[in-house]
Design goal:
Layout (H helix, E strand, L loop, with lengths): L1 E9 L2 E10 L9 H84 L1
Antiparallel strand pairs: 1-2
Length: 116
């Protein structure tokens, strides 16, 4: 029996692909019962290979989902609140600078008005 293994990309995750090339078959003249058993065995092997492929795919997808979930949680709980605080701080700073510029320009106008 020969099985070829490869990979395919499912949602950015490399998952295995298994394919049976040569399954055991009957080349000799055997009784009908033996031929039926070999056919069942071939079917069982194909099902087993497909099950192994799906199992490994699900495991890898589960690991990737857990990794993405941790990243999303970090973004929601840490990074986004930090960015919002930084934005809030910068807006307060810019508003304060704007008020200072207005007061400074008003004082300069008053000083120029006194000189004139």
């Amino acid at each position: 029996m020969e099985v070829i293994a490869g990979t395919r990309n499912v949602m950015g995750v490399a998952t295995p692909v298994l394919e049976i090339l040569k399954a055991p078959g009957s080349t000799l003249a055997l009784p009908v019962e033996v031929c039926e058993l070999q056919a069942k065995r071939r079917e069982l092997l194909e099902t087993l290979v497909a099950t192994a492929e799906y199992e490994k795919e699900l495991i890898r997808l589960g690991v990737e989902i857990a990794r993405v979930k941790r990243i999303v949680t970090m973004l929601e709980k840490i990074l986004i609140p930090r960015l919002l605080n930084t934005i809030r701080y910068l807006m307060m700073k810019f508003d304060e600078m704007e008020r200072e510029d207005k007061v400074r320009s008003m004082k300069i106008k008053a000083l120029l008005a006194q000189r004139a």
